[in-house]
Amino acid sequence: MTGKDSAHMLLTHEGVDLSYEVRGSGEPLLLIHGSGVPAAIWGRTIDDLAADGHRVIAYDRRGYGASTHSPVRDYRHHVADAIFMLERVAARPATVVGWSSGANVALALTADRPDLVQRLIVVEPPLHGLRHPTAGSLRMIGRAKWAQLRGRPEKSAEIFFRFVAGDESFQALPEHEQNMIRAHASNILAELDPHPFGAMFEHFPIRRISDIEVPITFLIGANSDAFFHEVHQRITVAVPSIHTEVISDAGHLLHIEAPDAFAAAIRTAMSDHHNGRR
Asked: Which residues are 122's β-sheet partners?
């Protein structure tokens, strides 16, 4: 994340230094990244949204990138960190965009602190992935853990990301981004471990989503794995008021594979048509 108008800073929460960057000015917009990658994975999305007149806040979750702490299994810490970022940096209710497991964080923080959120945009959250696994997701976890047992954590990270992104999309990533994923292998392996408050948010009931009163938009790639489409179906059947935007010619890495369409979908979600509370 670079740019002449950016500012890299540290914010300390619970003894953890959280590294974040602010780009642009205007209505605050918080970006929460997913598993296995730091905030740098947002790429040009930060500049695109800042150019639209938003004050974009992107941070490395604890244990990722320049933020401190060991890998975290208990996602309640990530939710508390995100709330802290909104309280200290956004300064007023913000649009929150969460991608992958970061979308689970975004859902939980909005349910806990709706006063901090103007609108919510979730991008393929792996909600209840252990409760409702697919054959593909079970196979991925088994292969990743087997590679871990064989002392090949970087291979585990690659197996995980090839599943969530797709083989072609992973292969298309620049080498430095593939290496960034492999460098976060310990995070991925920790988050794949079963935990009562883990990355899949088995503890978070869908009824809590239906209780959220701020507008919710669900972004999903047309080419994403069936696992994410099944999650989308379960959530939107239970909460039909959620607005859905399908990004064509993209998979789980929507913001990388289709950056223009991704930014346009966020603009739509932030338009006056979606501004009112539900």
From this structure: 98, 218
Residue 55: which residues within 8 A CB-CB, separation 6 or more? Answer: 22, 23, 24, 25, 26, 27, 28, 29, 90
Q: Are 31 and 56 in contact (CB under 8 A)?
A: yes
Residue 88 DSSP class: I
157 falls within a domain:
no
Find the CATH number of the domain harbouring 123: 3.40.50.1820
Instruction: List the structure tokens of 175.
Output: 């080498």
Its pTM stands at: 0.95
CA-based nearest residue to 232, from 214, 213, 254: 254
Distances, alpha carbon 219 to alpha carbons 1, 75, 154, in Å: 23, 22, 29
Residue-number span of the structural domain to which 57 is assigned: 7-132+195-274
Q: Is 184 inside a domain boundary?
A: no
Structure tokens at 53: 């007149």
Q: Which residue has the tokens 């959220």?
A: 212
pLDDT in tens, 48-104: 999 999 999 999 999 999 999 999 999 999 999 999 999 999 989 999 999 999 999
Residue 145: inside a domain:
no
Expressed in percent and rounded to 5, the helix, strand and coil fractions of the chain are 45, 20, 35
Q: 101 near 125, Cβ under 8 Å?
A: yes
Do the domain assignments include residue 152? no
Structural domain count, the chain: 1
